[in-house]
Design brief:
mainly beta, 60s Ribosomal Protein L30, Chain: A, eight-stranded antiparallel β-barrel, 6 helices, 30 strands, 9% helix
Length: 481
């Protein structure tokens, strides 16, 4: 197909025209031509970017001696004039006071792919590095038929590219592949020239270029992750097929020993993604790297520090909190509901709590507890129906789970029953909400053993199940300020 060699980034709109032969009734042929055009449009638009506008027209029958030629669909591709790879005005620079410096740092932030138009190949450069482009002017080189080097200004266009969740407005440009292979894109700086400057005016090729391993920033900005059930060390990733170079070797972090392997779920052009797995370190996804080009005297260090966070857990509010607790205690004699108010102090891995209130059996109830949180986790880790999500650098989970062990001292006083003093050792699970101003801060369930210090009419040792939730009333630290 001709469309295979066409770069869809340059498209503005598509027009599908349905036709039919003159056999049969006119109205039936008109509907047939419309049906054909809609079917072809539905199939072709799967390959086009989602932002492309298209329309369908039906011309019906047309008399001809060769009727089979009219049973067809005409596809017209419209391209904006500004998007055509034009020939900018040639700019001459004196070789004595100008330096040509290839910007490898920018190229590391770009996605490059080629397409063919006619007999000429082009390189499409696509990037999100708006700050770099706003502060610099870039050029690409060209050699005339007489062998003279000329530089041409790169013209960047803002265009919405990609599909589905990776559809964004990006900066793109096109450069003839022959010229890009010879000169890349570069900045022109005044002398004196640094060690990475190239002497293009003398007709020399790129001399200061070597292979280096670098993080694929563009790819990492356009991938999604999915948690693996009960797997705390890895996540599944998927990347748009158009942003992965199948011929390139990908690695995990800056070591070439940890090779990243891409897989597909189904073969053929309809597959949209490549899949793989990446390790996690402290809620950070490890980097994806590959071999790129660098200046030999100024090799950019490979960024081994993870840049994407996989929904890190938000920090616990460590203030003193005046709160209310509502819950139920299930023991040997049945369940007893209670309502208490008190003060709690939260630390990074522990929690103190002092509460006093009333129980439904008409008794006064109070307790002092200490709990140690040995594991905090995102609920996605135990969700068997986890979905694909896009990591956000500044995003953290405000609701997550905490496993803990603890001990509490319970006091129960009633006018009709003897005084009770019991100690409880328990293990529990709490769902916490760290969002500021949240009404319900904590929901918990815990199970343990009670020791009865005053042996009246109750067993000396018995199990107890307790569940409840805490309602935030006042943040005492803010009140005291």
């Amino acid at each position: 197909m001709v469309l295979l060699n066409y770069d869809f980034l340059l498209l503005d709109s598509v027009h599908f025209i349905g036709r039919a032969d003159s056999v049969g009734k006119i109205k039936a042929n008109l509907k047939l031509s419309e049906k054909r055009a809609k079917k072809v449009a539905a199939y072709c638009m799967k390959a086009f970017p989602s932002n492309i506008v298209y329309n369908v027209a039906a011309l019906g029958e047309k008399e001809s001696n060769e009727a089979y030629k009219n049973r067809r669909i005409d596809i017209i591709l419209y391209v904006r004039i500004d998007d055509e790879p034009e020939e900018p005005a040639i700019e001459d620079f004196s070789p004595d006071d100008q330096c040509y410096v290839i910007d490898y740092k920018l190229l590391h932030l770009c996605h490059l792919h080629t397409f063919k138009r006619g007999n000429k190949e082009w390189v499409v450069i696509e990037t999100n590095a708006s700050e770099i482009l706003e502060n610099n002017v870039y050029y690409y080189g060209k050699t005339t038929r007489k062998g003279v080097f000329r530089s041409k200004k790169v013209k960047w266009l803002q265009k919405r590219t990609g599909k589905l969740w990776w559809a964004k407005r990006r900066f793109i440009t096109t450069v003839p592949k022959k010229d890009f292979d010879s000169y890349k894109i570069f900045r022109i700086k005044p002398a004196p020239c640094g060690s990475c400057a190239e002497n293009f005016q003398a007709g020399k090729p790129i001399l200061h270029e070597v292979d280096c391993i670098q993080m694929d920033t563009f790819l990492k900005e356009n991938l999604q992750v999915k948690r693996i059930l009960f797997n705390w060390r890895q996540v599944k990733i998927r990347a748009p097929k158009e942003y992965v170079h199948p011929e390139a070797d990908y690695f995990v972090n800056c070591s070439m020993q940890n090779k990243l392997t891409w897989t597909t779920k189904r073969a053929g052009r309809r597959e949209k993604y490549y899949y793989s797995k990446l390790p996690i370190t402290f809620h950070h996804i490890e980097n994806i790297t590959r071999i790129m080009k660098c200046c030999d005297s100024n090799i950019i260090d490979c960024n081994n520090k993870p840049v994407l966070q996989l929904f890190p857990l938000d920090a616990i509010n460590k203030h003193y909190s005046f709160n209310m607790e509502l819950g139920s205690r299930c023991m040997y004699a049945g369940s007893i509901q209670y309502a208490t108010i008190g003060v709690s102090k939260q630390f990074s891995f522990s929690r103190f709590n002092l509460q006093a209130g009333y129980q439904t059996n008409h008794s006064y109830y109070s307790y002092l507890s200490y709990q140690f949180h040995f594991l905090s986790f995102a609920f996605q880790n135990i969700n068997p129906f986890a979905t694909w999500q896009t990591p956000k650098p500044a995003f953290s989970l405000r609701r997550y789970g905490r496993l803990y062990v603890g001990s509490s001292l319970h006091s129960v006083y009633s006018h009709t029953e003897p005084y009770k003093l019991q100690q409880n050792f328990h293990v529990g699970l709490a769902a916490v909400n760290t969002q500021y101003g949240a009404l319900v801060q904590r929901v918990f369930v815990q199970y343990g053993i009670n020791l009865n210090y005053f042996r009246s009419n109750t067993p000396s040792i018995f199990p107890m199940l307790q569940l409840g939730f805490n309602v935030n009333l006042i943040d005492l630290n803010r009140l005291l300020k």
